[in-house]
Specification:
single chain, about 290 residues, alpha/beta, 8-stranded parallel β-sheet, 13 helices, 8 strands, about 50% helix
């Protein structure tokens, strides 16, 4: 767990791709990222085929945390939504995510059921309740190296001043990383960096969302140390899958679509089949004894 804390450094940007199933995680590992982000949107969509609107519960999500943590060789930051209930539920969620192998949990101040941070209609709980979630989360973890990412969604409906006020309260409550969701301009992002310079800051990069998509160096200049890209992979996958499915529907064959497909054997190696092949070779003579 201590590895994640060591990866977060002033003047550098820890880039965390969004992973949501075994395939996306295996590919992220093949590319070689230092940390991964289990996206709630992508996890709910891939696992249940439902929108990220508070429809998945603790049991479903912690099971995915356990599955992905077992595969991941890099620290995994995991979306814990609102903690799936009251303060006792928040404590239970933190304990469960930590035991399941996550390196960090992200908790937010939305009302339950929550909604994706770059979609309309989000409402936040009162500040006192929001700060209590973070305080309880910090108390519930077994190790200080299990990090608490505190997110506020107040910017969209209540303005940046309120979002900053909440982030400061989260810092006082024991958060390790601050996450002001959905700033809409570089000027707002710069103000966040200046106002909250005491703790590591996380930027949520959603292509097509509310926050500007900038260069790595610009995020560093604005004061961020962590950048998550929750949607990049599933947006790419969605476009690619729709393209080849459309070709298949139109022609009745995958012939002519080979240029859009990964090499089958390379893909199999990415998923770990080499270990299976090695095991089979090592035990090839078992049936002959």
């Amino acid at each position: 767990l201590s590895m994640l804390r060591k990866l977060i450094r002033k003047g550098e940007l820890l880039v965390c791709p969004g992973v949501y199933d075994g395939i996306s995680l295996r590919i992220a590992q093949k590319v070689g990222f230092d940390a991964h982000y289990m996206t709630g949107y992508g996890t709910v969509a891939s696992h249940l085929g439902l929108p990220d609107a508070g429809l998945a519960g603790y049991g479903e999500m912690v099971d995915r945390v356990r599955t992905l943590s077992r595969i991941s060789t890099a620290p995994l930051i995991c979306d814990g939504d609102t903690g799936y209930g009251g303060l006792l539920n928040v404590a239970h969620t933190v304990e469960g995510y930590e035991a399941a192998g996550a390196a960090a949990i992200q908790l937010e101040d939305q009302e339950f059921p929550k909604k994706c941070g770059h979609t309309p209609g989000r409402r936040v709980v009162p500040l006192q309740e929001a700060a209590a979630r973070i305080r309880v989360a910090a108390e519930a973890r077994r190790s200080r190296d299990f990090l608490i990412v505190a997110r506020t969604d107040a910017r969209t409906e209540h303005g940046l001043d309120e979002a900053l006020r909440r982030a400061e309260a989260f810092a006082s409550a024991g958060a390790d990383i601050l996450f002001v969701e959905s700033p809409e301009t570089e000027a707002e992002m710069e103000r966040i960096g200046e106002a909250l310079a005491g703790l590591p800051l996380l930027v949520n990069v959603v292509e097509g969302g509310k926050t500007p998509v900038l260069s790595r160096q610009r995020y560093v200049e604005l004061g961020y140390q962590v950048a998550i890209f929750p949607a990049t992979a599933f947006l790419a996958a969605g476009r690619g899958i729709e393209s080849v499915y459309s070709h298949l529907k139109a022609t009745g064959s995958s012939a002519g679509a080979e240029g859009e497909l990964a090499d089958f054997m390379d893909f199999s190696r990415t998923l770990g089949f080499e270990r299976v092949w090695e095991f089979d070779r090592a035990h090839a003579d078992v049936g002959e004894r």
